[in-house]
Amino acid sequence: MTSAFTARSDTPEPFGGLVVTDQNTTTSVLSELRRLAAAYRSEIERDWEAQRQARERNQCRGAVDFAIEYMQQAFPQTLDRALPAEAWQGYPVVEDGRPELLRPMAVTYLGEGLFVHCVREPLDADEWQGVLTLLSPCLCGCGAYREVYVGDDYALAWELDHAPGQQAVCGVTCISDVRFEEW
Q1: Sign of CA dihedral 41, 44, 48, 54
Q2: Residue 109: strand pairing partners
Q3: Cβ atoms of 162 and 150 closer than 8 Å
Q4: How confident is the model over 81-129, as pLDDT tens digits?
Q5: Is 119 within 8 Å of 131 (Cβ atoms)?
Q6: Alpha-carbon distances of 169 from 26, 85, 177, rounded to whole Å
Q7: How far apart are CA 139 and CA 145, in angstroms?
Q8: Model pLDDT for residues 31-50, shown as the tens digit of each residue
Q9: Is the pTM of this model over 0.85?
Q10: In what order do the strands lie in the sheet with 105-111?
């Protein structure tokens, strides 16, 4: 068998005394190294995935908790009375380049195609404000949803009176990239 490496007597032995003397030994070391590296990488990636899932669960739970609290504070006469807390569905941060999805959010379906979307917006480093958006299907038939920000019970009541099904014409510019399937 041909020697891959030859140890010289005047130099220290490489690798703490391990002297590779033939191609078969080198191959078996490399095979073992690949197996160990793959197992390690797999373990690290499982840990990363578990951390990501835990982070997303926390984001969803936090978004729902905030939506419930905000609903109680800003909409005590309407949403807080009509909407059970368990109706909210939390969604984690989506990092796909759309700035509106860079915060966790909570969404609930009201019926007749209407959704309510709630997110925390920063005011400054220590303060947040709630932003509640009513999403309703556009009457023009394009499949998009119109998005209307509502800040209190009165604004919500007004929008519900003028929601699709209550008005003959959409009257609001469509948001062509907001589709039901994305929510």
Answers
A1: positive
A2: 115
A3: no
A4: 999 999 999 999 877 666 555 788 999 999 888 899 999 887 777 777 8
A5: yes
A6: 76, 33, 20
A7: 9
A8: 999 999 999 999 999 999 99
A9: no
A10: 89-91, 105-111, 114-122, 128-137, 144-150, 175-179
